[in-house]
Amino acid sequence: MKFKLVESLEDIQADYTNKKEQLEEIKKFFYDADFLEYTKPNGIAFEKNLEEEENSYKAQFYIDTTAYTYSCYITTDTTASQVSYSSKGDFSNLLPAVSRFLDELNKI
């Protein structure tokens, strides 16, 4: 017996609209934190670099707008060590992931 899963066009459109609204909300968080937005293959990235006398860091949050996933990392180079933070997931936990990413960045 074969089953065919069919979603209605209305459900697909509602899901797309919801994800688009989430993305616009996320952009505001990054703009407020002085990140630059870059168009990347299949998505967008928000990046921030900071160099000080003794250390520097690079932070990137990439959102794949075709697969609806994200990945992020923070790398800090100091004279003594290198500290990294990374995470990845899907749109179901995107807002908490952005909050945690920005919190980790503020701790550095």
Architecture overview:
The protein has 108 residues and is α+β, with helices and mostly antiparallel strands. Helices cover 35% and strands 40% of the residues. It has a 5-stranded antiparallel β-sheet with strand order 1-2-3-4-5, covered by helices on one side. The longest helix has 24 residues, at 9-32.
State the secondary-structure class.
alpha+beta
- Biggest β-sheet: strands ordered side by side in the sheet: 1-2-3-4-5
Radius of gyration: 17 Å
The span between the termini is 57 Å
The portion of residues forming beta strands comes to 35-45%
Q: Compute the number of strand runs.
A: 5
Mean pLDDT: 86
Helices, by number, come to 2
Major sheet: 5 strands, antiparallel
Could you list the spans in which at least 5 consecutive residues all have pLDDT below 50?
A: none
Order of helices and strands: HEEEEEH
Helix percentage? 25-40%
Q: Based on CA inertia axes, which overall geometry fits?
A: elongated
